[in-house]
Amino acid sequence: MKIFAETERLILREILPTDIDGLFELDSDPEVHRYLGNKPVSSKDEIVKVINFIRQQYIDNGIGRWAIIDKQTNEFIGWTGLKFEKNETNNHKNYYDLGYRLIKKYWGKGIATEAAFASLEYAFDKLNTDYVYAMADCENEGSNKILKKVGLKFIKTFDLDGIKHNWYKIDRKEFENKKPNR
CA 122 to CA 138: how far, in whole Å? Predict the structure, then answer.
């Protein structure tokens, strides 16, 4: 098992086949999927495909989303991290996309912000990238707030599959100015 990053409260590690129950709890919740334009999953077989897809990204791209684990309880909280996006989104391709998704009971506790900071630190310090991008449904106030809080700058609004999204970007220098002391 590879651990990519740790924070005061969190372990950010590779997603494993044993994360099926946690991922099912996360992705079967309609509220979690409210701003994702997807339908929640309805079976653990769908989650097995998600896990296999993410694990293949580790092989193909050297990076993929990570499990967020509570250090004290060892519970699965959700996922975070970077995805190397080869497909074009908003006239961009071959870029690192920052993302996160938490089980509802963990919302509002600063976990997504803490995990996003650690993900950005990994992007700039370990992957040595110059930029990281992210997007959020315009109506998803929580996610838009987190992206701004960790230092991403709003670039523009664009249409993704008929839904308005905000497009964000951060570069290495901007992150260094925003990075919390650890």
Answer: 27
pTM for the predicted model, two decimal places: 0.94
φ and ψ of 6, to 5 deg: -135, 145
Task: Quick: pLDDT tens for 146-179.
Answer: 999 999 999 999 998 888 999 999 999 999 887 6
pLDDT tens digit string along 12-46?
999 999 999 999 999 999 999 898 876 899 999 99
Structure tokens that stand for 136 in this block: 């959020």
Contacts by residues 71-75 (CB-CB < 8 Å, ≥ 24 positions apart): 71/6, 71/8, 71/9, 71/10, 71/11, 72/9, 75/22
Domains, the chain, with CATH or none? 3-132 (3.40.630.30)
| Category of 162 on φ-ψ map: left (φ > 0), alpha (ψ -120 to 50) or beta | left
